[in-house]
Amino acid sequence: MDQSLLERIIRLDENDELNMIRILILIDKIAGKKLNQTIDGISKLVKLDFLLRYPIALERALIKLKKEKDILKIDIKEYERESVETNLMHFNYGPWDNRYRKFLTILEAKGLIAYIISGKTVNVSITHTGHKTVEEISNYPEFESYLIRSGLIKRHFASFSQKKLVDFFYEVFPEMVTMKQGEEIKI
Questions:
Q1: How much of the chain is helix, strand and coil, in % rounded to 5?
Q2: pTM of the predicted structure, to 2 decimals
Q3: How many CA atoms, within 13 angstroms, populate the side-chain half-sphere of residue 36?
Q4: Is the pLDDT at 40 greater than 60, yes or no?
């Protein structure tokens, strides 16, 4: 791999704005046309974002569900298959990035998402301002893959309960079963 490509990939993962855009697009897609669906828990959001952040993980998950037609829609680029893994760590039943709380706090402070507390669960929803922002972002072809992949994630995984998603992750990504907490995920 060309060193300049490697450097660009590393810089992209360090770009907080790009990470927040990806998360915002995902939250918006899951909210649906009426913007009334929430993501039940930050841990669930993180797992769904894992599928968006790593298209090869989404591909493996769709293969497990036998969704061949949707696998083609992922349109994984060669650089996505060969890129250096970013710093997602194994943490309490799945992937975690220590920047999620920061990203979500900034998105909430900007009025793009909202939290709804239900018992011990923090549900995440899109605001009208957040939805309008995603509509504007949708005009940029650079984000088309996030939009398509987020739609696939909504269709196939948003209805999963937290427990079902954890069990599914361990089935599709068995390497996570033996990982130690804090160990970098490599898929």
A1: 60, 10, 30
A2: 0.84
A3: 1
A4: yes
